[in-house]
TrEMBL record:
Signal peptide: none
GO BP annotations listed: negative regulation of DNA-templated transcription
Lineage, highest ranks first: Bacteria, Bacillati, Bacillota, Clostridia, Eubacteriales
Annotated IclR-ED domain residues: 69-253
Coiled-coil annotated spans: none
Domain HTH iclR-type: 5-68
UniProt keyword annotations, A-Z: DNA-binding, Transcription, Transcription regulation
GO MF, one example: DNA-binding transcription factor activity
Organism encoding this protein: Sulfobacillus benefaciens
Protein name: IclR family transcriptional regulator
Pfam families xref list: HTH_IclR, IclR_C
């Protein structure tokens, strides 16, 4: 049985709205529209959150933003979640070895993933700017498709029926190619996308499994597509897989890491 407290649900929705970079400061009207709640209820919840320092109000601009208490709260959540702490620490190892910006990604809904942590390469190597907490469409890029690939096969049709979005000329919008790509990810254990979500940006990704053999996180390296050739891509794949296998084992995963034979899926 599902329990739902409307005011709590709305408060969480408001915090999620303000956590997005493009909505980091919003007026009451904007928040009420984005959170799908009437202005009176929205104001009551905002004032409660403000009193507890979860929300900050700028009286001059008449805008709300995330409050200071969320900073130590987030740090404590990280400390109390060993899987996240270990995975975050491993990002530095990967960034050092690949000399690329490395991110930890988590699924936050059926259709979206979120940047959970990022690590920049040391020195003067090119860096890709990533906003922690930013949501990304799950089907649009390699690190999102790493989650979908290990869903039940029947779930794949959801994304096809929803409609595959063309973000760039390199986006996968053909249903048959999309399904083939998911099969290949499940077979190979990693995924590479080249400019499929952002023009000129490549992502090389692999999943981290938990004890239940579900994808807990995805680790990805980001780079300008022009900087990579096939040899360099595979070097990066080997580094990422070395780390994701260790992280999966830390989580209690006891499944098969090696590539599996492609099955005959019917479409």
């Amino acid at each position: 049985m599902e329990y739902d407290v409307p005011s709590v649900t709305t408060a969480v929705r408001i915090l999620k709205v303000l956590s997005r970079y493009r909505h980091k400061s919003c007026s009451l009207k904007e928040i009420s529209e984005l959170a799908h709640v009437n202005k009176t209820s929205c104001l009551r919840i905002l004032r409660t959150l403000e009193r507890e320092d979860f929300i900050k109000y700028d009286s001059k601009r008449k805008e709300y933003s995330l409050g200071p208490y969320l900073i130590p709260l987030g740090k404590r959540a990280l400390e109390l979640n060993p899987a996240v702490t270990t995975a975050t620490a491993e990002l530095a190892v990967i960034a050092q070895r690949t000399q690329l910006t490395t991110v930890l990604v988590r699924r936050v809904s059926r259709d979206r993933v979120m940047y959970l942590a990022t690590e920049e390469p040391p020195g003067n190597h090119p860096k890709i700017s990533v906003s922690i907490g930013q949501h990304v469409p799950i089907a649009g890029v390699s690190f999102g498709r790493c989650f979908i690939a290990y869903d039940e096969d029947s779930e794949w049709n959801h994304f096809v029926e929803l409609g595959l979005v063309s973000y760039t000329p390199h986006s996968i919008v053909d249903p048959i190619l999309f399904i083939q790509t998911l099969r290949q990810i499940r077979h190979d254990g990693y995924s590479i996308s080249r400019g499929s979500l952002t023009p000129g940006l490549s992502a090389i990704a692999a999943p981290v499994f938990n004890q239940e053999s579900h994808v807990e996180f995805v680790v990805a390296c980001l780079a300008m597509t022009s900087e990579l050739d096939s040899t360099r891509e595979m070097d990066i794949v080997h580094v990422i897989l070395d780390s994701t296998r260790k992280l999966s084992e830390f989580n209690g995963y006891q499944g098969q890491h090696d590539a599996q034979p492609l099955e005959d899926y019917s479409w």
